[in-house]
Structure prediction request, 94 residues.
Amino acid sequence: MIFAASTDLEKFSGLKQGDPGYEAMVRRIHDVTLQHKIVLGGPQAWKGRDGFTFFQTPRDTQIIRLGAQVNLGTAPGSKQDKPGITPIESVEKK
Prediction:
């Protein structure tokens, strides 16, 4: 497997994502990797790019923040009925 690390590519090349030279590098990695039937991964932001089949997870702090937002009902697209209460705690006792 090959993981195309965006930050490493930036540091190695001195180019930023979106720069034509940077994107050419990513295309070359993509094409050669898939040509040799090797699994290709990259940063989560690239999940829409063809050929990438696994992705780097967010940092621990981002996962914790999102979990808290979901629990509080403040996460984007959240429709939680009882913010701040986990499902097992929200079960009403008779």
